Amino acid sequence: MIQNITSATKLTREHMGNKAYVLNKLAREGFRVCSGYVLSGRFFEKFCRSNHISPGTPAIANQIRDGHFDDDAHSLLRGVFQTVIKKTGQIIVRSSGTEEDTDGKSFAGIYESISYITTYEQMLQGIKKVWCSFFAGRAAVYSDTPSALSIPVMIQEMLTCDKSGVLFSRNPVSGQDQILIEACSGNNTKITRGEKKAVKNILTKKERAALRHLCTDIEHRLGYPCDVEWGMQNHEIYIFQARPISACRDENIYTVPDNAAGDCILLDRYANPASVCYLSLLDAWQNQVYLSYYTKRPGASFDEKPLCFRSNRVYWNTKYQKKYFEDTGKHTLLRKIKLYHLMQTGYKCWYSRLPQYHATLDLLRREIDALSDPAKIPALLDRIIDNFCAFLGADHFLFLGLAQILYKKADSVLKKENYDASKIIGENPSKNKTVQANEDLLAIVANVQSHPALRTLFLQSSEQKILQTLSEREEYRDCNTLLGAFLTKHGHRGIDCDDLYYPHWSEAPGQVILLIKQLLQLPPSASTEKEKPIIENKKTRRLVSLANEYMCLRENQRYYFDKSWVLLRSLLLKTAGYFIERGILTDQQDIFHMTIGEIQDALKYRNYAPSGNTIDARRKNYLHQRQQTPPYMIKDCETVAVQKSTRSKSYKAMGISSGTASGKIRIVHSLNDLGHIEKGEIGVVKTFHPSWTPILKVVSGLIMNYGNMLSHGAVIAREYKIPVVVFNGDAESFFQNGDVVEINGTKGRIKVLEKMV
């Protein structure tokens, strides 16, 4: 029931509590720890029995104060007192709860510590006070198990320090790898209670170096980022306490809205929810990228960020857009010059980085394939993220903004010169990687269409059967070669390739087969080639050409970014296997319910991963969000309903690809619906995925739930010369298959011509 804290015998957490357990571990590994003893929870239970104290009674604290120690207890405690008091003449009585000093809750300041005890009676009263504090109101509110019966108590020598303080092995606020040292003269009681400020320059350079080394060593021995209370006497450093820096393992991370993001609009690409892992990567990325046209300061230094998160989705911050995205520098000559220079050279510089980007990806891919040592995972993970975030994606938001500025300017100039802007802006099919990928896919479809037996195989067999047959049958070699070339070239893409949670085509080629099966059922499409108007004004031609470069770049960036995602997913799945061996996860896919920071922490610190309960809760949140329709527009933290009624004959929309079209509604929920589209119908989609592009040769127009003029669907639709409107709401709740509508992508209207009964 009583054990020596500094003995060579290993203490158990269950009976002696976390604080005593850690101090015993550090003492056994050679760190200086104040000598003393720990009274186990069983000692308290025996005290309760001898005083007839019942567990859970409301008056338990009073009963503890009025209780008496029996003869056996006095005999043991007198021996403890006489041993501990010898060295310094003073004693401290402290708690050592089983919930205390964990990475979830520190219990800092929750339980009592009784200092400067000099008599046996004071020690007895100190023990009772610590026990009572366990049942006090603040502890009961803070604890997850306030009805627990017992708490271990430590009795240690009380050290009078020359200097003392607190160490953090990482910044507890930002999470950065940064050792922080707080120090004061004398004992550190007032620092830990927040009553006394730490004093700068109280430590010598040598003492600071010793504390940094000590902190790093303790972190390594314990296996997690540490918050360490220390004291110095005669230049020797003693450890009073070492606990994990409390980790914020929010079960609802990226689900509950961030109230700081008052005005935002759902990004069309995220109509479906994304995993915590992917969202955390986007969150980290926007802290690294450049967010202003006029400076290369990282995003973390800006007061507004482009992205905000809620409902496991990504929203566009309209405050950022107004403050930075639309800042054309028109009132400052220097800014005008900087913006002009960026417009002329930005896209060229970005494309010039691609060879190095690909070379790095190839090197990383080989290292991942050969990976056998889990210790190498953190460095590989950092290099993949840096290759994307800091190298290729650093100026992504700048180029999005330039595309918008140039589009608006070109549109305005063309209208003044009496040109139809919709026939000119967005024309760059020879450079657009998404268009090229879909042309390559349609080449496979054409090959299948030209072989009746092969077409029958595709329409009547499963995806796996088709893949097997293509690899085995000589007569289908051409089709198999085309498919192999397509996967080699475009396999980094996929149906949900934005989210790391889902496999890409290279990992799941059956998705490509399913897409081909759907495209085979579409009616033959007419050529979209139309006569291009000739622009007389040379300056206008240059403006349109530049706008087209950035419209195309906007698509191509995402195409190349996917190459990092597929590599990152591959490494994370390997990491998940390692986590399963360590007992952190039970299923590979669960790694995508951890943030990138948590994954890196769990790799670096063997005892610092989210609990199974946290991961389970996030999985449930994610699955729940897949069944929900997210709000499109949020203003002042409140959801704004854009469309007021389902019975209207006309709806206001946002035109993002000009022109008019009429036809029957065809709702496209997923890839499986593509084969049901008939020539001339109006497609209704939550969001337009790149792999759906071939349907733009069949539909006469498109209604998107969410989006803007730089949305993927808008950019590609302008290539195919069909009108697109954004409904700014859940169009599936307003329209159904068979309704006949007319859409106007120039004015932004949807007119109901005929409603299905």
Give structural notes:
Helix content is 43%, strand content 15%. The chain has an 8-stranded mixed sheet with strand order 17-24-23-19-20-21-22-18. α23 links the parallel β21 and β22 (724-726). It has 23 helices and 24 strands. By secondary structure, the chain is of the alpha+beta class. The chain folds into 5 domains: 1-158, ATP-grasp fold, A domain (Dna Ligase, domain 1); 160-247, 2-Layer Sandwich (D-amino Acid Aminotransferase, Chain A, domain 1); 264-417 and 537-625, no CATH class; 433-520, no CATH class; 641-754, Glucose Oxidase, domain 1. α14 (396-416) runs antiparallel to α20 (538-582).
User: What characterizes the major β-sheet?
Assistant: 8 strands, mixed
N-to-C span: 79 Å
Helix coverage percent: 40-55%
Beta-strand residue percentage: 5-15%
Major sheet strand order: 17-24-23-19-20-21-22-18
Structural class, please? alpha+beta
Integer average pLDDT? 86
Tell me the count of domains. Answer: 5
- Morphology: elongated
Please sum up the structure shown:
This protein has 757 residues and is α+β, with helices and mostly antiparallel strands. It has 23 helices and 24 strands.
